[in-house]
Amino acid sequence: xxxxxxxxxxxxxxxxxxxxxxxxxxxxxxxxxxNPPPCELLVCPPATLLFVVGEILAGSGVALGxxxxxxxxxxxxxxxxxxxxxxxxxxxxxxxxxxxxxxYHGESNEAVREKMxxxxxxxxxxxxxxxxxxxxxxxxxxxxxxxxxxxxxxxQSAAAPRLVLAYEPVWAIxxxxxxxxxxxxxxxxxxxxxxxxxxxxxxxxxxxxKNAAEILALSEVDGALVGGASLKAKDFMAIAGACR
Length: 244
Ligand code: PGA
What we know:
Layout: E1 7-11, H1 18-34, E2 40-44, H2 50-57, E3 62-66, H3 83-88, E4 93-96, H4 99-104, H5 109-121, E5 125-130, H6 134-138, H7 142-153, E6 163-167, H8 181-191, E7 200-204, H9 212-216, E8 223-226, H10 233-241
Parallel strand pairs: 1-2, 1-8, 2-3, 3-4, 4-5, 5-6, 6-7, 7-8
Bound molecules: 2-phosphoglycolic acid.
The site of 2-phosphoglycolic acid has 13 residues, from strand 8.
């Protein structure tokens, strides 16, 4: 079987004013054109930058995604953004259930599942984030936690092209800590049977240009979800260049 193409996705989180977003998108577009990486590339800017970044990256081969969406297509939801609005701006992906949304916005598995259905109805692929906390890993519950997040968050009729899973141990996000390669491989292999066949499983949490090659060489790893290092065009492209 042909190997799945790896996906490197940048999660810009709540970073960037208009000028920063424009500059980063221009740099990314230029680097991607000069030296197309051996993987699929995606950036997920904050909602305020989607339009300008999408315009700049059009035709560059770098896809556009969002960081969250509401479960309803429209209506009285002050401050929220719907999946059809994201699709309208040219998004192809939306990150759902990121640990920062689960902790700071109290997002439950059920809420994530409803958003996933909304994303699919709008024609977006969902990047579902799951991952254990430090104390859960320390007490040997990492797999049980991740399994229950997967089983609770994935909507029915999930299929590979419209679902990507990102395994992001919460303790590795933004901390510079990364699990051992054996632990990453073990978790990815353990969750694969829980997912529709051919679903790509990304690793996320402190991926940087130094550790990317080792992580992306793991046969169980189908790409990376990158936070901090995605805010520097060169670093992000170096990570993408490390794909198999
Ligand atoms: P990080 O973030 O790369 O800064 O650790 C990853 C993420 O939150 O998706």
